[in-house]
Design brief:
Elements (H helix, E strand, L loop, with lengths): L1 E3 L3 E3 L6 E2 L2 H16 L8 H10 L4 H11 L2 H14 L1 H10 L4 H10 L6 H11 L5 H11 L5 H13 L3 H12 L2
Antiparallel strand pairs: 1-2, 2-3
Helix pairs in contact: 2-3, 4-5, 4-6, 6-8, 7-8, 8-10, 9-10
Length: 178
């Protein structure tokens, strides 16, 4: 990454400027990796999300390093912030299919915080077909905040037909609360 004069970096693929706290965290990560002669093990999640929004092609690898370097709580809170502050960008990240299942489940749950159901529901319904039960369960939790008749019908179907007991249980509870 190119260093900027204003104490930051520019991502080589997206041209996104990374400055402030994120730049300081990234500088520390890069300095440690340069001194040890290895690839960085961790990028700050806020940097990863900004790169995802900008359309970085290497976001999948970055997200893997971010989620291994930060707690699950931090990952979930970052997606929740994105859902309330930049909901269209969260949905775009989910739709790109670039997140690992652990991160995708947090993103799906966070999508429950998006106020515009007409934008969030189609994306979350699509995740109910994901191969990972973890992702399907996250989608159920996200959909629980957007219940209408169509969503409840789908949740009832999932409660009866999903292959995973935890997903079935989550769907049953979400549909019953409607």
């Amino acid at each position: 990454m190119e260093r900027l004069k204003e104490d930051g970096f520019r991502h080589p693929q997206t041209g996104l400027a990374i400055v402030g706290t994120e730049a300081r965290e990234l500088a520390g990560t890069m300095q440690r990796s340069e001194s040890s002669g290895t690839q960085p093990e961790f990028y700050p999640l806020s940097v990863v999300i900004d790169l995802a929004v900008a359309g970085s092609t290497d976001i999948a690898a970055l997200m893997m390093t971010a989620t291994s370097g930060e707690s699950a709580y931090q990952v979930g809170m970052s997606f929740a912030d994105l859902a309330t502050q930049r909901p269209d960008e969260l949905l775009a990240i989910i739709k790109r299919g670039i997140l690992a299942p652990g991160a995708l489940t947090w993103a799906a749950e966070a999508a429950g915080c998006i106020r515009e159901s007409e934008a969030a529901v189609p994306v979350l319904l699509g995740l109910l077909d994901h191969e990972s039960p973890l992702v399907r369960e996250g989608a159920v939790y996200g959909l629980a905040e957007h219940r209408d008749e169509k969503v409840v019908v789908k949740l009832n179907w999932i409660a009866m037909n999903d292959q995973d007991d935890a997903v079935k249980r989550a769907a049953r509870v979400a549909a019953e609360e409607w």
